[in-house]
Amino acid sequence: MSNITYLKGNILKLKNYPHILIHSCNCDGSWGGGIAYQMSIRYPRSEKDYIEICEEGGSDLLGSCSLIPSYAEDNLIIACLFTSSLGGSGHGSKESIVKYTKQALDDMYSQLQDPATGKSLGAVAPLMEYKLEMPKINSGIFGVPWEMTEKELLEYKSKMDFTVYEL
Ligand code: APR
């Protein structure tokens, strides 16, 4: 059985279970387009955290993951995968975005296993019990064919299950 489940619909619809919304980010402090823009409207405090993280880390963030509270919903944590230095048309190559996606997912996985991370985020359950959800990351503004990212997600078969929303 695959570790990826596909669902049709808007990933931002409200849920009644603990979940982590995973998305790809630039390191430039901009949630200006795509899913990130929608999140900036719904989760302005999270966007503020994200901007501060970018101001501090810049491109050193590449290949890392920042978990931040959504503040608006108790059962939602946001995972920012830093996969490109810049957003928009200045984004990295497909190959580098996929490489950094894998590194950032590895980083996310180790943070999920650390009980201290959940505590600092005010998690409502152990983070490993949160449902891992994402849109088809990298396949919009970042222009990476979905199959390239999907191939990497499948590598986590014994470690993480993902629910992927497609519009
Ligand atoms: N629900 C489900 N899927 C969505 C939604 C939604 N509400 N909004 C967008 N999508 C889909 C898009 O159709 C696309 O397939 O999410 C996928 C990823 O799109 P982008 O948001 O363009 O993200 P990505 O390609 O990963 O590029 C990341 O764009 O999101 C900004 O700031 C972010 O610089 C970063 C870049």
UniProtKB/TrEMBL annotation:
**Residue ranges of the Macro domain?**
1-167
Enzyme Commission designation:
3.1.3.84
Q: Which InterPro entries match?
A: ADP-ribose_metab_enzymes (IPR050892), Macro_dom (IPR002589), Macro_dom-like (IPR043472)
Annotated Pfam families? Macro (PF01661)
UniProt xrefs under Gene3D superfamilies: Leucine Aminopeptidase, subunit E, domain 1 (3.40.220.10)
Q: Which reaction does it catalyse?
A: ADP-alpha-D-ribose 1''-phosphate + H2O = ADP-D-ribose + phosphate
| Name this polypeptide is given | ADP-ribose 1''-phosphate phosphatase
User: What is the similarity comment for this entry?
Assistant: Belongs to the POA1 family.
* Top-level EC class as recorded in UniProt: hydrolase
Biological process according to GO: peptidyl-glutamate ADP-deribosylation
